[in-house]
Amino acid sequence: MMHRRHMSPALVVALIALFVSLGGTAVAAGVVPLAKRALTADKAKQADNAKRLGGRTAAQIAAQVRGAQGEQGAQGPTGPAGPKGDAGPGGPAGAEGSKGDTGDTGPQGPAGPSMSVVVRTAPFSLVADDAELFTVQCEAGEKAISGGFTYLSNALVLASDTVPTENGEGWELFLVNLSDTIDASGTVQAVCLA
């Protein structure tokens, strides 16, 4: 026995779309001749209107209907003044002027305070493999501005910190003797401004 196959819904939709599209072409083929006849009738109506105007345009006809130009009327009274306009843009910068004369020499100012730089020293001594903070004081009225140290030995001595004292009247140096066997001695200095 043979089984009958049913059409799928997708096939049904495709067939409907095919018939509609083919029918649309036929409808369009029937409409095009009608549109051509309508265009021909419209052109015939325009030609008929042109015959009535005698080949003239609407502007030419309007000019013929208008009468001759009249005389010029008397001048009217002056109107009120309008509001003030905005300021125009600034003009370009002018040329640089010539250099003026040198002025007179002013009076001599008062003499400044006398200043001098002095170096204050203090001895230091470090045993091998030791570190210590040393301070050098300036004299009364002096301010420390720098500091340093000197030594004569084969030891290796470094300053790990060098700063002015809190009141600025001396200099502090934190010295380190890196030698394991050699002691070091020398001088620490403060450069003071008197």
Give a structural overview:
This protein has 194 residues and is an alpha+beta fold. It contains 2 helices and 6 strands, in the order H-H-E-E-E-E-E-E. It has helices at 9-53, 58-65, and strands spanning 117-126, 131-137, 143-151, 157-164, 170-177, 184-193. Strand 4 (157-164) and strand 5 form a beta hairpin. It is elongated and about 135 Å long. The mean pLDDT is 80.
Key terms:
single chain; 194 residues; alpha+beta; 3-stranded antiparallel sheet; 6 strands; elongated
Q: Widest sheet: strand order? A: 1-6-3
Number of helices: 2
**Structural class of the helix and strand makeup?**
alpha+beta
Radius of gyration: 58 Å
- Arithmetic mean pLDDT: 80
Q: Give the helices and strands as they follow along the chain.
A: HHEEEEEE
Portion of residues in beta strands equals: 25-35%
Number of strands: 6
Summarize the structure.
With 194 residues, the chain is an alpha+beta fold. It contains 2 helices and 6 strands, in the order H-H-E-E-E-E-E-E. It has helices at residues 9-53, 58-65, and strands at residues 117-126, 131-137, 143-151, 157-164, 170-177, 184-193.
